[in-house]
Design goal:
The complex is a heterodimer of chains A (362) and B (231). Chain A is an alpha/beta fold. In chain A, 35% of the residues lie in helices and 30% in strands. Chain A has helices at residues 49-56, 89-96, 114-120, 129-142, 158-170, 188-205, 216-222, 240-245, 250-260, 262-270, 273-276, 298-306, 336-348; strands spanning 7-17, 22-33, 38-42, 64-69, 72-77, 85-86, 99-103, 176-180, 208-213, 225-230, 233-239, 282-290, 309-320, 323-333, 352-358. Chain B has one domain: Orthogonal Bundle (MetI-like fold), CATH 1.10.3720. Chain B is 78% helix and 0% strand. In chain B, helix 4 crosses helix 7 (103-127), helix 6 packs across helix 7 (103-127) and helix 10 packs antiparallel against helix 12 (200-228). The longest helix of chain B has 33 residues, at 23-55. The chains are: A alpha/beta (362), B mainly alpha (231). The interface between A and B is medium-sized, with 30 and 23 residues. Chain B: Residues 27-221 form the ABC transmembrane type-1 domain. Chain B: Belongs to the binding-protein-dependent transport system permease family. Chain B: Its main location: membrane.
Chain lengths: 362, 231
């Protein structure tokens, strides 16, 4: 596949000038999103995620860099003072219709009904009036809100409001959907419904989704690629699996922890007598693995081959992108030489072994 | 009853119904001044209020220059005491309506007196329309005018009606002063024919009529706000 990325953000800088200081919201960021990707951008608030995604549809004009969407240059400037190329006026509004956007606080028009909210996006559509009506009805059907067509946003729940917003964002058949913390104001159950809907849109219609969030959980559900953002910079990028299995940066680990709770488990288990009073021939370890490793009965093998017993205290196995990713907290006990050999075998099978307590002699 | 009324309110009867100094004439003058200056001053205020919102730093067409111009004009006219504006604006009134006294002449200072107040009220009302909604509209490719009419004015509709009610009531207050340039009206009735002639009964009835007018405006305004608000 040598297809050009549908969204190419290269060397994007966004700086704001306030009275006496300059704030760099986005610092030299490059992001390429392929057609059909669900691209998660994770970071704490203030990291510059929202500013970055607004560059895609030029709701935020960058200070410098280049924005190419669907092979069309939206913006191009080598630096702040250089001559810039920017798409504007009717052309820009036209392109924006092909980039849907949903928001944390839904941003529905409060004084319009559900139908009118969706129809608002079709004001400049070339469709005829009756075609527009049919389109709105079809969209409401898609988000399962046909029975709420004549209600006002105030009469809807958060999840319903977000579904109206999704219908509105999809009105002009966009190829790209930007989700700006779209599930952050929703409860966990509703969050999952919205994420399932986004996943369906991605799979059934090939919609490319750029999803920004501070919830790793959301990314874990639907993204296939992830970037982690901090202080206006992307500090780590990769496929969902790479990021989850081998996070390199501290912040990335923190985010993953929020989705797996493994650190919390370590913390809790460390205080238990079993671990607290760890014997000399025991070691408390964390075993992490990705993919097919899980198909082999490794733990059983440890006992069979090395007479090393594994007491599993905590386990977490996720299926990410149809690949299992697991973390086990175990106490391994056996003779030093045997333990050593056992750990070696585990590592040979691409299991990451992290000794948390004990095993100084290993 | 009639006898009692004639006995208690002799001066009210004396003013008569029609004619130059009659009650009906005064009521019509007040309504005439309120209506037309509400139209002219209201439009002007609406334009300035919208101007202040869209040219503000976080508006959809930020412009330091234009914001400064709108802001200073509004501030200047708001700072002028109305009774002084009535007199000071006379030469301009003469150019616009051909005379500087009378009910129609009063429309110029009334409109100029009410528009800055209304502009500020509109500014506050529209600033309550969330920036997020405006951004969402932009993200679906809404044009400048789509946003002004379809988002700001539509979303701010009930708030606009509320501030219009407030403005209309204060405008009724201003028309009472227009008597100073011979515009007539209920205010003039209360002062010139009532207070100045020690005809307390006339003042009382004129005041009562103004109060009824205010009440009617308030009630209609409240009903409209309630009907238009879906938040």
């Amino acid at each position: 596949m040598t297809e050009e990325p549908i969204i190419k953000l290269d060397n994007i800088n966004v700086t704001f000038h306030q009275k006496k200081r300059t704030i760099t919201a986005v610092n030299n960021v490059t992001v390429h999103v392929n057609r059909g990707d669900v691209y998660g951008i994770v970071g704490y608030s203030g990291a510059g995620k929202s500013t970055l995604v607004r560059v895609i549809n030029l709701l935020q004009e960058p200070t410098s860099g280049s924005v190419i969407v669907n092979n069309e240059t939206f913006f191009q400037a080598t630096d702040e003072n250089a001559k810039k190329t920017i798409i504007g006026g009717n052309d820009l509004r036209d392109r924006r219709r092909k980039i849907g956007m949903i928001f944390q606080h839904f941003n529905l028009l409060n004084e319009r009904t559900v139908t009118e909210n969706v129809a608002f996006a079709l004001q400049h559509s070339p469709l005829k009036e009756d075609e527009k009506k049919a389109k709105v009805a079809e969209l409401l059907e898609l988000v399962d809100l046909s029975d709420r067509a004549d209600q006002f946003p105030a009469q809807l729940s958060g999840g319903q409001k977000q579904r109206v917003a999704i219908a509105r964002a999809l009105a002009n058949d966009p190829e790209i959907l930007i989700s700006d913390e779209a599930t952050s104001a929703l409860d966990p159950k509703t969050t999952n419904q919205i994420l399932a809907l986004l996943k369906k849109l991605n799979q059934e219609f090939g919609l490319t989704i750029v999803l920004i969030t501070h919830e790793m959980q959301a990314v874990k559900e639907i993204a296939n690629k992830v970037s982690v953002m901090q202080d206006g910079e992307i500090i780590e990028s990769g496929s969902l699996l790479e990021i989850f299995a081998q996070p390199k940066e501290q912040l990335t680990r923190e985010f993953i922890e929020t989705a797996t709770n493994i650190d919390k488990a370590i913390e809790t288990i460390s205080h238990e007598a079993l671990v607290h009073n760890l014997k000399d021939n025991e070691v408390f370890a964390r075993l992490s693995y990705v993919g097919d490793t899980t198909d082999e009965p490794l733990i059983a093998g440890l006992f069979r081959d090395f007479n090393v017993t594994a007491n599993i205290l905590y386990g977490n196995i996720e299926i990410l992108q149809e690949t299992p990713v697991g973390s086990l907290l175990v106490i391994l006990s056996g003779e030093t030489s045997q333990l050593q050999a056992a750990l070696g075998t585990l590592r040979d099978h691409h299991v990451t072994v992290e000794l948390i307590k004990g095993g100084q002699s290993l | 009853m009639n006898q009692w009324f004639a006995h208690t309110f002799p001066n009210v009867i004396y003013q008569g119904w029609g004619g130059d100094t009659g009650w009906w004439t005064a009521i019509v003058q007040t309504l005439y001044m309120t209506f037309w200056s509400a139209i002219f001053g209201g439009l002007l205020g609406l334009i300035f209020g919208i101007g202040l919102i869209i040219t503000a730093p976080n508006g959809i067409a930020p412009s330091k220059t234009w914001f400064w111009i709108f802001d200073k004009i509004v501030s200047f006219f708001r700072a002028l005491p109305f009774i002084i504006l009535l007199a000071a604006i006379a030469p301009v009134t003469k150019i616009i309506v051909g005379t500087q006294i009378g009910t129609t002449a009063a429309l110029v200072p009334l409109s100029l007196g009410v528009f800055p107040f209304y502009a500020r009220q509109v500014q506050v009302a529209l600033s309550e329309v969330s920036g997020g909604i405006v951004e969402a509209a932009q993200s679906v490719g809404a044009s400048f005018w789509d946003i002004v009419f379809g988002v700001y004015l539509r979303e701010g509709r009930s708030e606009l009606v509320r501030v219009s009610t407030v403005t209309l009531i204060s405008l009724i207050g201003l028309t009472a002063m227009a008597g100073a340039i011979g515009a007539g009206g209920l205010g003039n009735m209360a002062i010139s024919y009532g207070y100045n002639r020690f005809a307390t009964d006339t003042t009382l009835v004129a005041t009562l009529l103004v109060l009824i007018l205010v009440l009617v405006v308030q009630v209609i305004g409240d009903i409209l706000v309630k009907q238009l608000n879906h938040k």
